[in-house]
Design goal:
Shape: globular
CATH class: Alpha Beta
CATH architecture: Alpha-Beta Complex
CATH topology: Cyclic Phosphodiesterase, Chain: A
CATH superfamily: Cyclic phosphodiesterase
Strand content: over 45%
Helix content: 10-25%
Radius of gyration: 19 Å
Distance between the termini: 43 Å
Oligomer: single chain
């Protein structure tokens, strides 16, 4: 998105980037299988494989200059955090399973992920960047409901199933461009998680 400010000296263009901060999730056979099963259901818009991620913070349209500074500050604030394991397990829906609008897979023992999200949140607030104020809820969105569909078997079959286990060793600052065919995501910056040498 592009906005402009007219000044007597000329026109200053401010480039806005639709931004979010996330952890990308590797696609396993178990994840691919659950996505394929959802594609067979009417009324479900399935998340593309190449967009599977855990959103730590959604910022929305943000001045690109602030995004550059955010990347720099996040690198400082995440220093010493170190890699951690993430296990994708179980399934559910927002707002609930009786009235599902968003289908998700859960995160087992998400304490380290929550810690990372808290650091990101504090960094964003410290820079006074406007962002989504929703409390972080660890989940992997796999589909959105566009109509009525029977998901009882989906929830039952996947209640305790493990879909993916991986080591999170980086956090991405992402750009999202909305198009008629859906959102296109690209990496603005990748921040490596490295343990402090003093630990």
């Amino acid at each position: 998105m592009l906005s402009d400010t007219d000044l007597s000296a000329g026109c200053i263009f401010i480039f806005m980037i639709r931004t979010f901060i996330s952890v990308d999730v590797p696609v396993t056979e178990e994840l691919r299988s659950v996505l394929e099963s959802l594609k067979k259901m009417d009324g479900v818009r399935v998340t593309p494989e190449n967009q599977l991620h855990l959103t730590l913070k959604f910022l929305g349209d943000t001045d690109e200059r602030k995004v550059e500074r955010l990347c720099s500050e996040m690198r400082k604030s995440l220093e010493g955090t170190g890699p951690f394991d993430v296990v994708i397990q179980g399934a559910g829906a927002f707002p609930n399973q009786r009235n599902p609008r968003v289908l998700w897979l859960g995160v087992k023992d998400p304490e380290r992920l929550i810690d990372a999200a808290d650091i990101v949140d504090s960094t964003v607030k410290g820079l006074k960047i406007k962002a989504d104020d929703k409390k972080f809820s660890p989940h992997l969105t796999v589909g959105r409901i566009n109509g009525k569909c029977d998901l009882k078997d989906f929830f039952k079959d996947n209640d305790k199933k493990v879909f993916c286990s991986f080591c999170c060793d980086h956090i991405d600052v992402m750009k999202s461009v909305l198009t008629p065919k859906g959102a296109i995501h690209s990496i603005v910056d990748r921040i490596k998680l490295e343990s402090s040498s003093f630990q």
